[in-house]
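REQUEST FORM: STRUCTURE PREDICTION
Request ID: SP-0412
Submitted by: Lab K.M.
Chain count: 1
Length (residues): 512
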Amino acid sequence: MGVIADGPLLDCLRRAVTFGLFLVRLDVRQDSSRHSAAMTEITDYLGLGRYEDWDEEARISFLSKELTNRRPLLPGYFKPSADTAEVLNTCKEVAAAPAASLGSYVISMAGAASDVLAVQLLLKESGVQRPMRVVPLFETLADLDNAGPVMERLLQLPGYRARLQGPQEVMIGYSDSAKDAGTTAAAWAQYRAQERLVDICREQQVELLLFHGRGGTVGRGGGPAHAAILSQPPGSVAGRFRTTEQGEMIRFKFGLPDIAEQNLNLYLAAVLEATLLPPPPPEPAWRHLMDELAADGVSAYRAVVRENPQFVEYFRQSTPEQELGRLPLGSRPAKRRAGGIESLRAIPWIFGWTQTRLMLPAWLGWEAALSKALERGEGELLGQMREQWPFFRTRIDMLEMVLAKADADIARLYDERLVQPDLLPLGAHLRDLLSQACDVVLGLTGQSQLLAHSPDTLEFIRLRNTYLDPLHLLQAELLARSRQQEAAQDSPLEQALLVSVAGIAAGLRNTG
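STATUS: Completed
RESULT:
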């Protein structure tokens, strides 16, 4: 025991004293609607009316006044509902936790200045006396477009500026914006939102920290980190870059020490380059064309995803979406609430399409946007943008990579085994759109084959397909049997289905 006490235990104590108990800071995250519901219950209890019914200016006025008020907002005998109690208890945990253990409080689906002020008031009411970054996460297309005005309104509030200690952190959502509008419009909205935020914070003389909520797949902002960082708007990477690594990408990028070191080197090199040699701002003609591409892309995307009455049912029949909610994959439910595509979390939305190799969320909309641009005779301008603008070049490179991994024959296999006859024409239409996307990208890049410029990547994909294709065959059969038998979660059938899902995700790499 003495050997242990004077050896490994002493080393452990020295490490704890030197480095502290917290290796990383944890973020807290909650949806804005939960905060709004909690505030409504509180104002209703106090006889002030319903917070949810107030306009934005009334909310800001009330929240700003209460944030500077020294008295408590609620009496000690207030008995909240279960949902409100969970929000308040989370804030109390923040107050009790050591400052070094927590990072930011992220507000999902933020869309207004009052969303940030409401969290600050809930934290204050729960006893949080230290500064804590409250970070709005702008996720939908409309919220990204409105991110600039929201932050400008916040930074103009004297009380907010007084509470702001350190940088103003803003999170940019990739997953839900792409699910809402398609990757064409979402990527451009993310770019413009960052540009506006950089300008506003420069005018207000506030340091800006952008937090990129990227997933592993292209449909969720994924792709090579080095290229992604260098494609950001000039000024948005100013010595630091905060991003998420999610799902199996954590293991792929950081599972082994040498690979982890290499990936951190890639991040470091890209941040240094983007800070010291930022890319030039896009030309006015490029902006105009990108506006047109985004408008055509979102129109084509929503015509399929939102306006086709058969789409939701086709998605649920042709992909493992129904089964993903039952399998022990991930830490969150597949849905935020009851409803259609808009209620589905971005991970199962993308994951389902990736499992069938249609890869629909990553390319749908681009085929129409690029085709219309070429029909208008703008092919030369597109080529110039791809050659000289890192943002556009990275988008096209990612699109090409996704299309190279897609496989219409595999997707047809799932349809034939799982989809009702009346929905089969929709599947055939989607595969036709996939073919159009491949053709237009080949026309834009001047290649006879996707990824012809990168034979190593092409060979890696071909090698993995040797193992992936049989897994797809097995999964389609397992899905059909699972739906017929309604097997229990721990049955061999469900376990085999889980293995097929994990195997396909590992083989396709950027899927989660």
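NOTES: The chain has a mean pLDDT of 90.
Reviewed by: T.R.
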